[in-house]
Design brief:
Layout: H1 2-24, H2 33-60, H3 67-72, H4 92-113, H5 119-147, H6 151-164, H7 176-183, H8 190-207, H9 230-238, H10 240-244
Helix pairs in contact: 1-2, 1-7, 2-5, 4-5, 4-6, 4-8, 5-6
Length: 250
């Protein structure tokens, strides 16, 4: 169970870390100053969640690796974040949709984890839920604003939905580890999880005059360390200092 819980935590923390990195890239690039501050703060929230879960994972592993080791010393094939989370900030509509899809996913995960017996992981989840509620509300306002705005804004947000939808399938994939985590109360059943997630999406899209794409081929593979071409560039930037000056202290 400990090894499975360790990998489960890495999967969750990796998603938060990579999403935080993408958010950090928005610093000074958002549509206006207040939004710039908001997006940067969302990145800090996600980074805090990642740090807390990496700390917990390191304890589970028996402190063989430090939390920093888990971030800076793993290669691309050892990361488990969804391919969706590493998609680039193509334009602001892409940011809104990517972060919204993942924020709803994380909310469902943390809601389940907030009720488990493990006080440390449930505590992390309860704190994260407060942050995610604000993020989800913020992104929903943007989805409505763009979907019900001008012809151009509607086209941009619908295009982002169409382009990113193919990456949503693996959010509900289940391997043997996931099935065991389901049995132990750490995950919802895949069908129930999807139902909760799609209800959020349907509700906001209906209110924003936006459409869910028809069923299409879904890109998967992250649970086996398979990623898009963007992941290597993210890690090159993120891990550069540690790779150049191993175990440097300052």
């Amino acid at each position: 169970m400990n090894n499975e819980l360790f990998i489960f935590c890495l999967r969750l923390a990796d998603n938060c870390l990579i999403l935080a990195h993408r958010q950090s890239e928005l610093c000074s690039k958002s549509p206006f100053l207040e939004e710039d501050i908001a997006q940067t703060n969302f990145g800090l929230d996600l980074l805090g969640q990642a740090e807390a879960i990496y700390n917990f994972a390191a304890e589970i592993e028996g402190n063989i690796n430090t939390p920093d080791d888990l971030v800076y010393k793993r290669n691309e094939r050892s990361f488990y974040n969804f391919i969706l989370s590493e998609q680039p900030n193509t334009d602001f509509a892409f940011v809104v949709i990517r972060q919204y899809f993942m924020s709803v996913y994380l909310k469902i995960i943390y809601t389940t984890l907030s009720n488990i017996k493990d006080s440390e992981l449930s505590g992390i989840s309860l704190k994260a839920l407060k942050e995610l509620d604000y993020q989800i509300n913020h992104f929903e306002l943007w989805i409505k604003r763009l979907g019900l705005g001008t012809k151009e804004s509607k086209e941009k947000i619908q295009n982002a939905i169409n382009e990113l939808w193919i990456f949503t399938g693996e959010l509900f994939e289940r391997d043997n580890l996931d099935l065991n985590m389901e049995k132990n109360g750490y995950l919802l059943n895949s069908n129930l999880f999807y139902k909760k997630w799609i209800n959020y999406i349907n509700d906001i899209f209906n209110k924003s005059n936006l459409n869910i794409p028809k069923d299409a081929y879904m890109i998967t593979g992250s649970k086996n360390g398979i990623h898009s071409e963007y992941m290597g560039f993210i890690l090159t930037e993120m891990q550069f200092l540690q790779r150049t000056f191993p175990d440097a202290k300052w």
